[in-house]
């Protein structure tokens, strides 16, 4: 059935008065909805056409009659086949010029897909009005005829009957464009070709197909109704502009069905899934599974084809549950003076998804720790709070701590949550008393003492204190730990320190006038503990060392000029018991002052020179009296060994051998003796080696007959001769 509006723009919906028996598609094709036998009388029903916008309706009556038998039908159909006639040509007013009439617009031929035949099925007959005077031949060209796919359409060249040879599939080719030709027996064109369009009418032969069989989406818990979740999409290979390809979506089932069996709805045209009810709670239902159905024929459950897919909607977590302590009070204990020790585990529960910012707990102390001796770390696996000591605690000062702690999530609670954002609890921590080490007061202890203190003198008392006031312990015991010069001893009970030797500031164990000794104080606790203390003795200098001459040996010329010797006074004491020094020569023997003179050139230096014009070369011992500036003064007589020698014009000695013969120093004598001993050892080793070699040679000679020893019998002569004599 066809409906044509005046303006051609109306959107019409066809309906049937007998929907159980007959259905009218959007394209006007009438279908039988069931199998039934038609009576001999015509069957009548009404087809309505309704404007979708104005709801205006028109009606038309349809009469159906049974088809005749096959033979009769063939004859009848043969008579009813539509003729397509080529446009004709004519002469105007006997004018010799021919003018062709304007081409006709051939309406398209509509052919349903999936036809059951019989084939070939006649469609139209193509003829020319000139076939009465000429013998014509008809043909068709184009895709489906002589071009791929070939052989779908054929034409009888004599009668012009156009037929289809097999069922068509609109999903493969929706329309065919052919050209019909008419020629005479000689192949000459007698008519212009005409275009024939064959439209394949869509049938609902394809089910909708979802792009994915399983669709995954997410929605935050607590979402309000109308929140977009996801979109599912299905496609239908049928004509999308006809009902066969128009899809509608609906939700068949929801699992689980709590808190409501209709938590979601779907837009039946777009496939958008949105929430329709409140109450999404991830802690109760973490995932919903929806069965989605797509039906063509605009969702008609009777005529439409359907298919299903699964939509899995995961409810994502939001921070709608704060952490809650499992107890109001937690307990722990810690030994005093221990750090980096976990003293208590704070446990919380949080219904949000584990290991997310909405579940991870952060702990902080709100009271009870003004000095910052504790901190709370979070165990990333268990979410527990680990109360840890970061500063030493003294039992004698604090025996117990009561901390107030709070726990909250890393992210704030979601809006509209009625719970408090944090949970609080108390932590009671008991400090355990342990045996602590004694400590000396003060440490180090400084004592100022003049050197020269005799052995057995009391120096000071160095005692320690035990911090364990609440433990039953005996008194401390003292012992010496370090005393480099072994000058001191300590009483094990009282801690009194006395000297065992004379204190000497000039000792090698004294650095910068300071002598250090270390002592040990021990208790009898369990376990026993001990502490060390350092005694620093600042030794004050006394004038207990006389100055000495330096160097001990010198060289000068036997003449008066040049003959000056520079000497220096050395005193281990320090100011004011050292320089400036006084230098002088003794009165005895008289030759000293007669031959030598000494002059001080500075506080520590003097110059010795000959008083006489000439002194015979040799080695002379010159005593020099040196006195320091201490109170009282300290003086000593130092002997300077002076080598007098003959000198050249530069003042260098020229008779070193004679001086050495006259007397050698101790170092030179030792060196000479060492050289002699080494030389004797080398000679002895050489003699032993030679004897050993002779013994080896004699042993070899015993193994060889002297007459067979050719080494002494073969001679070489560099001469030529008679040969006989040369033997």
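^ structure tokens above, recovered residues below v
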């Amino acid at each position: 059935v066809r409906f044509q509006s005046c303006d051609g723009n109306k959107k019409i919906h066809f309906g049937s008065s007998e929907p159980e028996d007959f259905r009218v598609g959007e394209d006007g094709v009438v279908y039988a909805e069931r199998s039934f036998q038609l009576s001999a009388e015509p069957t009548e029903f009404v087809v309505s056409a309704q404007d979708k916008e104005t709801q205006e309706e028109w009606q038309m009556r349809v009469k159906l009659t049974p088809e005749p038998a096959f033979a009769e039908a063939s004859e009848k159909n043969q008579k009813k086949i539509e003729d397509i006639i080529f446009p004709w040509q004519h002469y105007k007013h006997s004018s010799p010029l021919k003018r062709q009439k304007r081409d006709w617009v051939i309406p398209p031929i509509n052919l349903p897909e999936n036809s059951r035949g019989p084939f070939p099925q006649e469609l139209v007959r193509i003829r020319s009005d000139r076939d009465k005077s000429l013998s014509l031949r008809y043909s068709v060209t184009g895709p489906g005829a002589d071009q791929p796919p070939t052989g779908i359409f054929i034409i009888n060249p004599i009668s012009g009957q156009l037929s289809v040879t097999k069922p068509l599939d609109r999903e493969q080719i929706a329309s065919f464009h052919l050209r019909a030709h008419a020629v005479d027996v000689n192949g000459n064109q007698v008519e212009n070709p005409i275009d024939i369009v064959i439209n394949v009418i869509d049938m609902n032969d394809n089910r909708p197909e979802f792009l994915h069989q399983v669709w995954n989406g997410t929605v935050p818990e607590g979402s309000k109704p109308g929140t977009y979740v996801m979109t599912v999409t299905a496609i239908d290979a049928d004509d999308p502009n006809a009902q066969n390809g128009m899809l509608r979506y609906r939700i068949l089932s929801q699992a689980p069905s709590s808190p409501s069996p209709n938590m979601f709805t779907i837009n039946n045209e777009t496939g958008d899934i949105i929430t329709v009810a409140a109450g999404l709670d991830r802690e109760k239902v973490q995932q919903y599974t929806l069965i989605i159905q797509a039906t063509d024929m605009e969702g008609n459950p009777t005529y439409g084809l359907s298919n299903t897919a699964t939509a899995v909607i995961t409810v994502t977590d939001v921070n709608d549950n704060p952490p809650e302590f499992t107890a109001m009070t937690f307990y722990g204990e810690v030994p005093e003076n221990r750090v980096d020790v976990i003293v208590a585990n704070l446990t919380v529960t949080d219904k949000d998804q584990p290991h997310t910012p909405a579940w991870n707990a952060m702990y902080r102390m709100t009271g009870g720790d003004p000095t910052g001796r504790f901190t709370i770390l979070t165990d990333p696996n268990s979410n527990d709070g680990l109360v840890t000591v970061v500063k030493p605690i003294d039992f004698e000062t604090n025996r117990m701590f009561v901390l107030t702690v709070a726990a909250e999530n890393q992210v704030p609670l979601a809006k509209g949550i009625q719970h408090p954002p944090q949970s609080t609890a108390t932590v009671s921590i008991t400090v355990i008393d342990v045996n602590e080490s004694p400590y000396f007061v003060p440490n180090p202890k400084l004592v100022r003492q003049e050197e020269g203190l005799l052995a057995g003198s009391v120096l000071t008392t160095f005692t320690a204190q035990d911090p364990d006031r609440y433990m039953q312990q005996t008194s401390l015991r003292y012992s010496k730990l370090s005393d480099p010069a072994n000058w001191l001893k300590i009483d094990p009970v009282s801690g009194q320190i006395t000297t065992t030797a004379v204190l000497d500031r000039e000792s090698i164990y004294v650095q910068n006038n300071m002598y250090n000794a270390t002592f040990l104080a021990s208790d009898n606790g369990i376990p026993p503990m001990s502490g060390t203390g350092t005694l620093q003795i600042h030794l004050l200098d006394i004038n207990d060392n006389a100055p000495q001459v330096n160097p001990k040996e010198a060289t000068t010329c036997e003449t008066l000029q040049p003959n000056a010797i520079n000497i220096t006074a050395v005193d281990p004491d320090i100011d004011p018991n050292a320089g400036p020094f006084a230098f002088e020569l003794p009165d005895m023997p008289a030759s000293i002052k007669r031959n030598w003179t000494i002059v001080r050139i500075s506080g520590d230096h003097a110059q010795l020179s000959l008083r006489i014009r000439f002194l015979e070369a040799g080695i002379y011992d010159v005593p020099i009296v040196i006195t320091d500036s201490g109170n009282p003064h300290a003086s000593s007589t130092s002997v300077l060994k002076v080598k007098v020698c003959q000198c050249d014009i530069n003042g260098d000695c020229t008779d070193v051998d004679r001086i050495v013969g006259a007397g050698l120093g101790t170092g030179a004598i030792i060196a000479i003796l060492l050289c002699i001993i080494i030389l004797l050892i080398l000679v002895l080793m050489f003699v032993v080696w030679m004897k050993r070699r002779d013994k080896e040679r004699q042993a070899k000679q015993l193994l060889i007959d002297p007459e067979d020893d050719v080494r002494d019998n073969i001679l070489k002569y560099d001469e030529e001769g008679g040969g006989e004599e040369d033997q």
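Helices lie at 70-80, 590-595, 656-662, 666-701.
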